[in-house]
Amino acid sequence: MSDLYEKLLILRTPGIGPVRFRDLINRFGSPRAVVDAIGVNTAHIDTVRREMDTAQNLGIQYICDDDAAYPVTLRAVHNHPPVISVRGNINALCRPIISIVGTRHATGVGMRFVAQIACEFAAHGFTVASGMAIGTDTAAHRGALTAHGDNPVTIAVLAGGADYIWPTENESLYHQILERGAIISEMPVGFVPVATNFIQRNRWVAGLGEKLILGEADMNSGSMTTARFAAEYGREIWAIPSHPADSRGAGPNSLIANGMAHLCMGVSDFFHDEKNASKNKKSEKKSESENSVLDALGIIPLSESVLAQIVKKTISEIKRELVILELQGLIRKTDGGYVRV
Fold first, then answer.
1. What is the pTM of this model?
2. Which of 8, 181, 222, 283 is the most exposed, having the fewest neighbouring CB atoms within 10 Å of its CB?
3. pLDDT tens figures, 226-264
4. Helical residues (DSSP H) of 258-340, grouped into ranges
């Protein structure tokens, strides 16, 4: 039996995770000796063999923590996964990695901001890591994928198996990531995640990045858990501020206020490329002109007349755009006017 096969026999044994795995290796000296000691049965052997056969058929590779391709940042985390499965471009793991996380219920402005930062990091040779959830994670992956070139640009860390697409809304994103990045997991191929697996997923997202950038996030969100893991690992944390009246701004704002995170105002915090800065500035102006009504809205209701004054348009123009935005599900009407969803 190969070393990988023996390691999987141990790791797929109920009750054995990274901590117990290393304890057993230290005690018995080798994976082969551990397998002999714990006495795996025929059914367990068949299960692991089926998993490895399925992985091979799907193009999923296994990387042990003593392999050169194993991410150096993750290897530095105490009790990291001894083996991870990778689907896609394994070279995505070999570039410097930046992690970006945030709420699933991000605003349009917040997602565009995150996407722009992710694109810039990818353009500068980084791989952007996130958890492939809807909202901020999706914006980070998609932003990285817009970077020019053929290099791998993003990693999605899954709570389930590397072949298990969740959420289902991101099926197309999953396959796009396979083209210019990688899907990774510590769980068996075909594994359907439960709640605790998402917490562990957050741990590895934090461990992968040299830095963690936090977008909009509620105080009790999984993204804040990821930030706490990043702090535990000594990672540099950057937080994107948000409106104090919006609960999605409570997480990043609190980290900034407590000195746990640097204030992130945009790509200029990380890169000072004048050419790209000029390009991004033009792109921002274009975006603002195309979405002026949407960008003016937040959680405070604004009437049509107030919006007209802010964006300098006529009432009839405002009404027409509001109808379109409401049909797109981006805004909703309240008693006091319109708010952003």
1. 0.81
2. 283
3. 999 999 999 999 999 998 999 999 999 999 999 999 999
4. 274-290, 292-296, 304-311, 315-327
The full DSSP string for 124-182 is TTPEEEE---TTHHHHHHHHHHTSSSSS--EEEE-SS-TT--SSGGGHHHHHHHHHHEE
Radius of gyration for the alpha carbons in the chain, expressed in angstroms and rounded: 23
Q: What single-letter amino acid sits at 251?
A: G
Task: Give first-to-last CA distance, the chain, whole Å.
Answer: 55
pLDDT in tens, 196-211: 999 999 999 999 999 9
Give the separation between CA 226 and CA 204, rounded to whole angstroms: 9
Q: Which token pair is 119?
A: 């694109």
Secondary-structure class of domain 90-274 per CATH = alpha beta
Question: Do you know the residue count of the chain?
Answer: 341
Q: What are the residue ranges spanned by the domains of the chain?
A: 1-57, 90-274, 291-340
